UniProtKB/TrEMBL annotation:
<keyword id="KW-0663">Pyridoxal phosphate</keyword>
<dbReference type="InterPro" id="IPR015421">
    <property type="entry name" value="PyrdxlP-dep_Trfase_major"/>
</dbReference>
<dbReference type="InterPro" id="IPR020581">
    <property type="entry name" value="GDC_P"/>
</dbReference>
<dbReference type="GO" id="GO:0004375">
    <property type="term" value="F:glycine dehydrogenase (decarboxylating) activity"/>
</dbReference>
<dbReference type="InterPro" id="IPR015422">
    <property type="entry name" value="PyrdxlP-dep_Trfase_small"/>
</dbReference>
<feature type="compositionally biased region" description="Polar residues">
    <location>
        <begin position="1"/>
        <end position="12"/>
    </location>
</feature>
<dbReference type="GO" id="GO:0019464">
    <property type="term" value="P:glycine decarboxylation via glycine cleavage system"/>
</dbReference>
<dbReference type="InterPro" id="IPR049316">
    <property type="entry name" value="GDC-P_C"/>
</dbReference>
<feature type="domain" description="Aminotransferase class V">
    <location>
        <begin position="183"/>
        <end position="303"/>
    </location>
</feature>
<dbReference type="GO" id="GO:0030170">
    <property type="term" value="F:pyridoxal phosphate binding"/>
</dbReference>
<feature type="domain" description="Glycine dehydrogenase C-terminal">
    <location>
        <begin position="380"/>
        <end position="475"/>
    </location>
</feature>
<dbReference type="GO" id="GO:0016594">
    <property type="term" value="F:glycine binding"/>
</dbReference>
<protein>
    <recommendedName>
        <fullName>glycine dehydrogenase (aminomethyl-transferring)</fullName>
        <ecNumber>1.4.4.2</ecNumber>
    </recommendedName>
</protein>
<dbReference type="InterPro" id="IPR015424">
    <property type="entry name" value="PyrdxlP-dep_Trfase"/>
</dbReference>
<dbReference type="GO" id="GO:0005829">
    <property type="term" value="C:cytosol"/>
</dbReference>
<feature type="region of interest" description="Disordered">
    <location>
        <begin position="1"/>
        <end position="25"/>
    </location>
</feature>
<dbReference type="Pfam" id="PF21478">
    <property type="entry name" value="GcvP2_C"/>
</dbReference>
Length: 525
């Protein structure tokens, strides 16, 4: 159904003008298979398995027992396998092509990591088994923590946070505990306007007031603007470095000095650590706490909402406030320390999670670190920065750079001013990339740049891969400038689904599949 506020959601075969005369009876196009929902394939009256009714079992559900059939579709094993394999073919993934999402660091996940994580001694560890039975797992967590401390120049590490935002929460709770221990009532956190949205959200979640630091015209934070906001009520600054515009903050050390002089703490968002590993240690810049996204920097998979891992490194100023449990090296090796086992100097703010971190991600991250070594990690950072600047050099004559005076770090940021007068929007441009076989880059973020297009190729891509990507974007830009609007406004034409009617989807989402009325009943009506 069409309306005047968006475009319909339809199978690609049904609507694209370019497909006229090429529609197939099945809806399939060669190996691009049109896949129905499980409920449309399956039959409610059958099941793929036959289980006998248990004898002598009395239900304990009482009034909560189901009173109607579960109404799940019954499928055979081949039907089930085909369904999910066909769906998997419609996913875009780092294993199928370059993933240029800026700020997300979609780097290759080496199979060596996966092999290590599947070793029985790690894959079979259960969080409820006695600590005495998992010394190897504890040693691995301790060794990974030591690497993270060394690479960041910090004093301690908390391994339990489950993701980057969870790590932010951990670091800010340590800061809050430190302020309380000093007997102070600081309740303001400074956040640059270009920061990840989780930064102000985390600060507000635990009771801080947030004040925004405006960005300079060149996309960086001015130390004088920070000093103007500092006072006895400021608890911390939350700063990303390199920042979300892909720029290394040139005054970061001076900012840290000013923050510390005012009695506050420096929290660094570690989302972009992949750009500086082996080159700069955040602790040497004056950072007091920083979360590390293991998936962004140390190649563990983006888990689709989980599993995640966001260890937090802490400076000497905050080390005593690390949450429990934590791993420390004792006389007999690594040991897991609970609250009652901590030494007298420790002042842990509490426990963040029931279990200590995410074992599978720890194994993968340590495998990546050990296989690269210190020199290899440094080379990975250098290559990530080189890749971003290579893309920048290949596109800067056709696409517009909002901050041309700063070299890019691990990601390059363009704005959409190069599309002015073409009739092509930023969204149109991104949708056309799908037809070319690429996932679009990060769009409309950071918010300080209008129509932002943020590209992060990472160190995973070869020169040939980057050359094809650059050539593709150049071709799209030239098509937009010569007025080929159909290529953009009809895009994507070759994806399993056409462009969403996004307005209708947001205002009237269909969240539950309803079985359609039988055709005979509809005809009778």
């Amino acid at each position: 159904m069409l309306n005047n506020q968006g475009r319909p959601t339809t199978p690609a075969n049904d609507a694209a003008p370019v497909d006229a005369g090429r529609a197939t009876f099945t809806g399939n196009r060669g190996l691009d298979l049109e896949e129905a929902l499980l409920f449309e394939i399956g039959r409610r009256e059958v099941t793929g398995v036959d289980l006998p009714e248990p004898e002598g079992v009395k239900s304990r559900l009482g009034a909560h027992a189901r009173k109607t059939a579960i109404d799940l579709p019954g499928l055979s094993e081949p039907e089930t396998m085909r369904h999910y394999v066909r769906l998997s073919r419609q996913n875009y993934a780092i294993d199928s092509g370059l993933y240029p999402l800026g700020s997300c660091t979609m780097k290759h996940n080496p199979r060596l990591n996966e092999k290590a994580a599947r070793l029985a001694g790690f894959a079979d560890v259960h969080p409820l088994q006695p600590v005495s039975t998992v010394p190897g797992a504890i040693e691995l967590i301790g060794e990974l923590g030591d690497w993270l401390i060394e690479l960041t120049g910090m004093k301690a590490v908390a391994m339990s946070p489950k993701a980057g935002a969870h790590g932010e929460l951990c670091g800010m709770m340590a800061i809050k505990a430190a302020i309380k221990a000093r007997g102070e009532a600081r309740d303001v956190v400074l956040v640059p306007e270009s920061a990840h949205g989780t930064n102000p959200a985390t600060a507000a979640l635990i009771g801080f007031k947030v004040k925004t630091i405006p960005a300079r015209a060149d996309g960086t934070v001015d130390v004088e603007a920070v000093k103007a906001l500092l006072g006895p009520d400021v608890a911390a600054i939350m700063l990303t470095n390199p920042n979300t515009c892909g720029i290394f903050e040139p005054e970061v050390a001076a900012i840290a000095e000013a923050v510390h002089a005012a009695g506050a703490y420096f929290y660094a968002d570690g989302a972009n650590f992949n750009a500086i590993v082996g080159k700069v240690r955040p602790g040497d810049l004056g950072v007091d706490a920083m979360h590390i996204n293991l998936h962004k920097t140390f190649s563990t998979p983006h888990g689709g909402g989980g599993p995640g891992a966001g260890p937090v490194v802490l400076s000497e100023r905050l080390a005593a406030f690390a949450p429990v449990p934590f791993v420390r090296k004792g006389e007999t090796g690594f040991e897991l320390v609970e609250g009652s086992d901590a030494d007298a100097a420790a002042q842990p703010f509490g426990r963040m999670t029931a279990f200590h971190g995410q074992m599978g991600m720890f194994v993968r991250a340590l495998a990546f670190i050990l296989s690269h070594g210190a020199d290899g990690l440094k080379l990975a950072s250098e290559t990530a920065v080189l890749s971003a600047n290579y893309v920048r050099a290949g596109l800067q004559d056709l696409m517009s750079l909002p901050f041309p005076d700063h070299p890019s770090m691990h990601e390059v940021l363009f704005d959409d001013s190069f599309l002015e007068g073409t009739g092509v929007t930023t969204l149109d441009f991104a949708k056309a990339m799908i037809d070319e076989g690429y996932h679009p880059m990060t769009m409309y973020f950071p918010l300080v740049v209008h129509g932002a297009l943020l590209i992060e190729p990472t160190e995973s891509e070869s020169k040939a891969s980057l050359d094809l990507f650059v050539a593709t974007l150049r071709d799209l830009v030239l098509a937009a400038k010569r007025g080929d609007l159909a290529r953009f406004q009809d895009a994507p034409r070759f994806a399993p689904r056409r462009r969403l009617d996004e307005t209708r989807a947001a205002r009237a989402p269909v969240l539950k599949w309803e079985r359609p009325e039988p055709a005979v009943a509809q005809a009778a009506e």
